[in-house]
Amino acid sequence: MWIDYFRFDGEEIAFTRLEHLFPVVDKFYICEQRFISKGLRKKTLYIDAMRKRFDPYLSKIEFSIEEEDVNICAGKILAENSDVQFIVTVCEVDEIPDISLMKCVKEGLYNKCAEGCIYLEMPVYYYNLNWRSEKQTSATAFVVNDILLKEHKEFQKFREQRGPVFGVFECGWHFSYFMSVKEILRKLSWMKLDAEFIGNCIAYGKDLCKRDYVTIVQNSVGTGKYPKEFLALHGKTMGAQFEM
Fold this sequence. Notes:
30% of the residues lie in helices and 28% in strands. By secondary structure, the chain is α/β, with parallel strands linked by helices.
């Protein structure tokens, strides 16, 4: 069985992720944190406010709420699937596994994960498919199986690369900040960015966080292979610098 786990904080890309993975994933665990920051509780959970948007996928979804910093979802997955063998892809909402590869290798992944976590290396695209990182790849998404999860009982150890590792393989895409200016302002409210700056970053391929090690270059959309759902999302985000 393939379980897909990701954290949710109101991102539109979550629904594109569900549309893409729904035909092949057996169960989704979607987790939202109760607190925006230490001591600051959300008035309304996005899982509740956007519940109608999940309707087409509810047959395969389990929701989980994290209170403060405690990750309860690993235990929930173990408890609710104790009678089956499974792999779990653990991703940020915008880290998208390649389903064509996953369908071919998921049985092999299960066996290899008994020896250690497998990280999924992904090229990073920014804002839309016109921009990609020149050299940077993302390898923070990972796969574990039920055996490894029973032994370690948490995901955080693997997020911080403190658990046993089997290896890394290329699988998927990291679609970073495929959002409108309004969404980015909300997502990065703690950075105190302004709309004009964000719009210029989207239009000219600049890094929102001004990191020295990130070089963003133009990408030729026609030369790449992308899931159709994210090609459609690319079309929606092309004018995102003007959406407020």
